[in-house]
Every structure is written in C-alpha cells, then in structure tokens.
C-alpha cells in the first residue's frame, strides 16, 4: 500500500483540527482542549525552536564554505552574494508593504479583537515596556546587538539569532580564506552535522500533522469560545493573508526578476520564462529547492546558455542561501501575526524584520518545512508571540509550494545575471539556443 505523502497528512490534520475545535467549543469543552490537546501543539513549537539555532549555524557555514577558494569569493562570489542579498531585501520589503496596505490580520470582529487584547494583555504590556527601553538606546544599538560577546550564550537564546548568524558568517569566511587542506576535516564535520540536522528536521516534520491538528483545535476553541460561528472570522482572515502572500510572490516572479534580467542581465525575459518553466513545475510539486536543483541546473545550462562553471557555483549556493519567496512570506507572516494580536510594530521593528528575514534566509535549508523554522527566528527576534504560528500553519503547505517556485526562479535569474556580468559566455550552448530560436 502506497504511503500517504506528508503534505496530505498535514492537510488532514488541519481539517480534523478545525472540526474538533468546533465540536469541543460547541460542547463547552474549551478547558479540556487546553489541558489535553494544546500541549501537543506546544511540543511541536518547542521542537521547531529546538532545531532553529543549529540549523541556521551549520547551514550558513556550509553555504559560505561551498565557495572553495578566495578567488571565487572575490569576483563571482561577491556579485552572486550581493545580488542574492538585494533580491531578498526587495522580497521582504514587498511583503511588508503589502501586509501594511491590506492589513489581513485586522479583519476580526471587534469582539474577537477585544478577546485577544484581554487574553494577551500582559504579554503586550511587557513588549511595550521593552520597546520603550529600546527607544531610549543610541542609534547604533542595533549594530551593537548583532555582535556577540559569548557565542555559546547567544546560541542558547533564539532571540539572539542575529548574533549566531554574524558568528557563522565570520567563521565561514575564515574557513574559505585558510588553506583548504587544513580546514578539510572541519568542513567534513559541518557537512556531516548538516546531514544529521536535516534528518532531524525530517523527523520533526513527521510530527507536523499531529502538531498542526493540536494547534488548530486549540486555536479554534480559543477563538470560538462559546460562539463557534465566530471561527468564520478566522477562516476569512486566513484567506486574505494567503492572497497577500501569493500577490507578493507573483510580483517577485513576474515583476522584479524580469525587470532585473532586462536591466542588469540584458536578457530576453520571454526566453528565460520558457526555459525555466520545467524547474518551476518541479519546485511547485516538491516544495524543495534542493530536490529541484538538478532540473534547475539542466535548464539553466541547456536552455538559457549559462556556462557550467557559473551554474555549478551560483545555483547550489542559491539553493542554500537565497530564499526570496520564503523571506517575503516571513515578512508578511510576522506582521500578520502582530496585527492579529493587536500589536503595533514601529518602523524600526519592521526594519528589524527585514534584516532578520534577509539574514535568516541565508541559513534556511532547501527542504519542505524549513520556512516555518526560520519564521520562529523572525518572530522571536521581533518579540512577537511564537504561538501565532498556529494561525498560518493551515494554508502553509500550498504557500510553501508557491514560494519554492519563487526561490528557484530567483536562483536561476541571479545565475543568468552573474553570467552576463562576469562575461563568461558559453558559446557552444549559445549557438545551440540560437539554432532552436
């Protein structure tokens, strides 16, 4: 008998969680839900938080050390990383603009918002006090906060993830600059640890259907209270949130990338979209940039005329450190959760989300479910309730498929741009393409 795919299990868990939440709420068993079902959702959240720091640290170090020599790091590497960071920054910014314009999290009834204000009032007061103390600090305090004084202490605090990222970047660059024979054992160690951590992610995601079931059951029960009909508010808001995310992803895939290809790469946009289409379909079906990588490399080399040296350097790095779709989604999700909880984020806090999402995307594993782990980092860095992740788990599988398409499209776009900028034409492949056209 064929094993049921994980995403179907998650969808089933989502549906059953909503149904059970409505049933228990109608029966007045909200306390039972809180005591006997919600803890399993909390366990799932803790498992995600457990893996966040080691996943970012090891993935980021491996991503940087994939550049095998300092010459690559200087020319092709610097241009590749520069464009990757630029597109990620643009993606997060687009997400924040859209979520502030459409405000999907503010669509609840006044009664529901009042319930949230009362239930989470103490947490909100604590965050406001923290925000007030931060406002009294100097203008360069955010820069100081990025530099750790004790990496082991920072690694024990998910809220200090920028410090872990800073350490990983310095550590990875140092490894690239040292004689590769000397660092070969260290590189092999981190590659081995990376494989173990990715397997841990796989194991944790096996628990995802049950975690989603428990989270949504308790969430629906909390929302509905004594009136199950109020849960309709939640479903409507989730639909609006999903549309905002999809709109942002569409702007990146069909607006930003084509424009950059035209202006920076001087490349035919129609030819690019036609050539990369098979990789986009693979990305949509697998939700994994890593699983799609062989197809992406084949299309970029054979259909887009990119030299093998460029593709073999830029694309694997992109699958590791370039997650534009994931970053956009994280920006929208973070502000959406803040809106739901009635938390007003300042411009500085939202800029902090941009920075954290941009840097965290560098350490995001190219596997399904990694975006949720990265979102934990963004939420904690912004001081937002991590429990709000339950709100967005329901539509996450479909959105994950869409944002992986953007991730792969972004990798291919940057690969073409770097090829054009470095003047490294593949004449044989270019001639083949010319004959096809």
Q: Would you give an account of this structure?
A:
The protein is an all-alpha fold and 437 residues long. The protein has one domain (6-226, 233-436): Orthogonal Bundle (Proton glutamate symport protein), CATH 1.10.3860. 81% of the residues lie in helices and 0% in strands. α13 runs parallel beside α21 and α15 packs antiparallel against α16 (308-321). It starts with 5 loop residues before the first helix and ends with a helix.
Secondary structural class = mainly alpha
> How many discrete structural domains?
1
Along the chain, the helix and strand elements come as: HHHHHHHHHHHHHHHHHHHHHH
Shape: globular
Main sheet record: none
Tally of helical segments: 22
State the name of the first-level CATH class.
Mainly Alpha
> What proportion strand?
under 5%
Give the radius of gyration: 22 Å
Q: Report the count of strand segments.
A: 0
Average pLDDT level: 76
The appropriate CATH architecture is Orthogonal Bundle
CATH topology, anyone?
Answer: Proton glutamate symport protein
Task: Estimate percent helicity.
Answer: over 70%
**Low-pLDDT residue spans:** 120-128, 425-437
What is the distance, rounded to the nearest whole angstrom, between the alpha carbons of the first and last residues?
Answer: 46 Å
């Amino acid at each position: 008998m064929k094993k049921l795919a994980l995403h179907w299990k998650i969808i089933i868990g989502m549906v059953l969680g909503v149904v059970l939440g409505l049933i228990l709420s109608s029966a007045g068993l909200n306390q039972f839900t809180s005591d006997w079902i919600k803890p399993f959702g909390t366990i799932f959240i803790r498992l995600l938080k457990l893996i966040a720091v080691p996943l970012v640290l090891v993935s980021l170090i491996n991503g940087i050390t994939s550049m095998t020599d300092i010459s690559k790091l200087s020319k092709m590497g610097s241009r590749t990383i520069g464009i990757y960071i630029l597109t990620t920054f643009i993606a997060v910014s687009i997400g924040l603009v859209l979520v502030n314009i459409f405000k999907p999290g503010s669509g609840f009834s006044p009664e529901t918002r009042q319930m949230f204000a009362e239930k989470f009032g103490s947490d909100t007061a604590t965050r406001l006090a923290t925000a007030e103390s931060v406002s009294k600090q100097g203008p360069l305090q955010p820069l100081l906060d990025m530099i750790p004084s004790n990496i082991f202490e920072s690694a024990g605090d998910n809220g200090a993830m920028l410090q872990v990222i800073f350490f990983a970047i310095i550590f990875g660059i140092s490894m690239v600059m040292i004689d590769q024979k000397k660092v070969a054992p260290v590189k092999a160690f981190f590659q081995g640890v990376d494989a173990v951590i990715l397997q841990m992610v796989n194991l944790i995601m096996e628990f995802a259907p049950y975690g989603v079931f428990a989270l949504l059951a308790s969430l629906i029960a909390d929302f509905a209270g004594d009136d199950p009909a109020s849960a309709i508010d939640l479903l409507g808001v989730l639909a609006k949130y999903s549309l905002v995310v999809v709109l942002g992803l569409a702007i990146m895939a069909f607006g930003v990338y084509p424009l950059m290809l035209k202006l920076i790469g001087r490349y035919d946009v129609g030819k690019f979209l036609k050539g990369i289409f098979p990789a986009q379909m693979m990305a949509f079906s697998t939700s994994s940039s890593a699983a799609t990588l062989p197809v992406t490399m084949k299309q970029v080399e054979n259909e887009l005329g990119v030299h093998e040296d460029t593709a073999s350097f830029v694309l694997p790095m992109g699958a590791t450190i370039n997650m534009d779709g994931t970053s956009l989604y994280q920006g929208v999700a973070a502000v959406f959760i803040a809106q739901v909880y009635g938390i007003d984020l300042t411009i500085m806090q939202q800029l902090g989300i941009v920075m954290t999402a941009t840097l965290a995307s560098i350490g995001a594993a190219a596997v399904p479910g990694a975006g949720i782990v990265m979102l934990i980092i963004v939420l904690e860095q912004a001081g937002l309730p991590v429990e709000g992740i339950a709100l967005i788990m329901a539509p996450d599988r479909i959105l994950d498929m869409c944002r992986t398409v953007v991730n792969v499209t972004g990798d291919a776009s940057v690969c073409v741009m770097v090829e054009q900028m470095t003047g490294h034409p593949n004449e044989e492949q270019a001639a083949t393409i010319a004959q096809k056209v």
